[in-house]
Each structure stands twice: as C-alpha cells, then as structure tokens.
Amino acid sequence: MKLDLSKLETKFETLDFRKGDVLFRQGEINGDGFILKSGVVGLTREVGGAIVHAAKINSGEVMGVWKVLFDQPERTFTGTCLLDVTVLKIPEENLQRI
C-alpha cells in the first residue's frame, strides 16, 4: 500500500540516509521517531552479547517511538539503513504530547 505522506511532509523534517547509516542506537536517550518514506531499515537488539534481528521496517511504517510511548529511559533497538532511506522525523516533543 502506497501512503500519501505529502501533508506530513509539511509538518516534519525530511532526512536522507545512506545504506549502512544508523538512525538510532539501543541505549540512546533521544526519543525522536521516524516515518519511513522510502527504503528499508533493520531493527536489531543486543541480548546477552549477541545481536538479534528484530524486524525490517518498510515504507510507510513508523519506528523509533517505543522509548517515548512506553516511557522508557532509553532506546530498545538500533535502527540501521539496509538501503538508502528517506524519513520524516517526528520530534520527541510531539510524541510526548500524545
């Protein structure tokens, strides 16, 4: 399903990342969220010294919001670009108001 993100593009900053770039890391305290406009992002988590692959995020999906929505002190996952990626950044302040 192709989502029309044009209205959101007027409200949120658009950022581009290259394959291999890290959007956010497990343990970080920043809580900005992202809407994936294009590309694919892999979510991983370190558990007992091993890297566990948790999910692949595709266009139109939201990521990076768990910390704020579940009132956690730090990020649970690392988000790495598996392809070149364009995202809309949802500032942490916006998520906290929800």
Explain what the structure shows.
The structure is a single chain. The chain is mostly beta strands. Helices cover about 15% and strands about 40% of the residues. It is built from three helices and eight strands. Strands 1-8-3-6 form a four-stranded antiparallel β-sheet. A four-stranded antiparallel β-sheet has the order 2-7-4-5, with no helix packed on it. The chain is globular, with a radius of gyration of 13 Å.
Summarize the structure in short.
This protein has helices at residues 6-9, 66-69, 92-97, and strands at residues 13-17, 22-24, 33-38, 41-47, 50-57, 62-63, 78-81, 85-90.
List keywords for this structure.
98 residues, mainly beta, 4-stranded antiparallel β-sheet, 3 helices, 8 strands
**Radius of gyration from the CA trace?**
13 Å
Q: What is the tally of helical segments? A: 3
Helix content: 10-25%
Strand content: 35-45%
Principal-axes geometry comes out as globular
Strands ordered across the widest β-sheet: 1-8-3-6
The overall pLDDT average reads: 90
User: Could you tell me how far the N terminus lies from the C terminus, measured between alpha carbons in angstroms?
Assistant: 26 Å
Structural class: mainly beta
Number of strands: 8
